């Protein structure tokens, strides 16, 4: 296990995703919730987990086109899920890591 500790901004985005999911009862899967908990608690992530995060963001960037993306009063399920994985901060963080 390498030292892939999520920055505070990623932890904050994941926590926001968890809060929105509780409030609106939608968004994300059990895997996304587990990822959010790891990010929120700033647990060191394995290289494989970082690769899965990169893959998630690559697959789901199209979700940003959805209605209610970023709407705090009525967020789309995709927006909540994106936050569970660390949001834009998480995407930028994993994109900057050198993982083979």
TrEMBL record:
Q: What is the protein named?
A: Uncharacterized protein
């Amino acid at each position: 296990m390498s030292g892939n500790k999520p920055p505070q901004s990623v932890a904050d985005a994941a926590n926001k995703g968890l809060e929105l999911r509780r409030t609106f009862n939608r968004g994300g899967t059990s895997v996304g919730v587990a990822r959010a908990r790891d990010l929120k608690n700033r647990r060191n992530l394995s290289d494989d987990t970082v690769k899965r995060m990169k893959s998630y963001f690559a697959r789901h960037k199209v979700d940003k086109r959805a209605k209610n993306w970023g709407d705090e009063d009525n967020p789309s399920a995709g927006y909540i899920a994106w936050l569970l994985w660390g949001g834009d901060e998480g995407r930028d963080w994993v994109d900057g890591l050198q993982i083979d």
